[in-house]
Design a protein that fits this description.
With about 325 residues, the chain is of the alpha/beta class. It contains ten helices and ten strands. It is about 40% helix and about 10% strand.
């Protein structure tokens, strides 16, 4: 008996439409639709909290995964609230992949609990905290509310760290292989491809020689660039993370800028501009927008191009 195959999937209900080795046009369309539906139903349903996580999951899973990203790049990831659409997505998830280090503490526990989805509950294969594969920086010895929005588990913005991201990509590949064991070989191969591209990109980024370059940042977002590339941050516009700077804070950072002569003031698409522009006007130091995640700028289409843009911006500010 002849069969209808699409992307390696056979649609048995199309068999009766095959006659004499040919199909009528309508029959072909029906078979194609059914075969495509079979592919879609076979995909692993991945829900990622942040765009960079969704990007890497898609890079590893390709056509075998369907990825839904919860947080938009226009949002400050520190201040996201649970939405009904988040819960609806979580209910259908085979795998929930998130940043961890308490970055999603304000909404993710509610989503997981309310979803009633046993596949993504803590301790299950489908619950993937990417920070398990990360060595955090800036883990405080003590925390209190007077210190501002301090992350007690360490700085959660490790999307800027190629070293950590390679381990995260491997963890995603391992998890997808466990959830979808029939495609384990594919996921492992995708990770090897990712690793090869990573090695080429790291050589390229290292050649930009960022070590020792000095910057001011609005928020303490870029610390992993210090660890991986030797970039120096001489000050932050926010004296305390998450607390808007006062007039006194602005005066302080202006003096720091005049004394240390950084190459630029870095901010993001979601951060306030007024204070950064004021500091720039008082010091003559230019301010630049650096993408904080995949999709934050038109050029940051995936994690690799996101890092390309970050490194390129820092290298140009001489």
């Amino acid at each position: 008996m002849a069969s209808a195959i699409y992307n390696g999937y056979w649609s048995p209900c199309c068999a009766h439409l095959l006659k004499g080795g040919t199909m009528k046009k309508t029959s072909k369309l029906i078979c194609l639709a059914l075969a495509i539906a079979a592919v879609a139903s076979a995909q692993v349903n991945v829900v990622a909290t942040l765009p960079w996580i969704g990007s890497i999951a898609k890079e590893i899973g390709k056509e075998f995964v369907s990825v839904t990203v919860l947080v938009k790049t226009s949002q400050d990831p520190h201040y996201v609230e649970a939405k009904p659409s988040f819960i609806a997505a979580a209910r259908k998830a085979d795998v929930l992949i998130y940043n961890g280090l308490d970055l999603e503490i304000g909404y993710l526990p509610v989503i997981i609990e309310t979803s009633k989805n046993p596949r993504i509950q803590p301790g299950r294969i489908g619950n993937l905290d990417c920070s398990r594969y990360v060595v955090p920086v800036e883990k405080p010895t003590s925390v209190d509310r007077s210190m501002g929005d301090i992350h007690p588990l360490g700085n959660p913005h490790y999307q800027f760290s190629p070293v950590n991201i390679l381990h995260v990509a491997e963890g995603i590949a391992e998890t997808l292989a466990k959830v979808d064991p029939k495609n384990e070989t594919f996921y492992k191969g995708s990770y090897r491809d990712f690793q090869a591209k990573w090695e080429q990109k790291v050589r390229q980024w290292d050649s930009m020689k960022l070590a020792g370059r000095k910057f001011i940042a609005y928020h303490n977002l870029f610390s992993y660039l210090t660890k991986d590339f030797g970039v120096q941050f001489v000050g932050y516009v926010e004296a305390k993370p998450g607390i808007p700077p006062s007039a006194k804070d602005i005066e302080r950072i202006v003096e720091v800028a005049k004394r240390t002569k950084p190459e630029a003031i870095l901010t993001t698409t979601y951060s306030p501009r007024k204070e950064v522009q004021s500091i720039s006007e008082k010091t003559g130091i230019k301010w630049v927008i650096v993408p904080h995640d995949v999709g934050a700028t038109s050029g940051a289409k995936d994690w690799f191009s996101f890092m390309d843009e970050v490194i390129s911006i820092l290298a140009k500010e001489r």
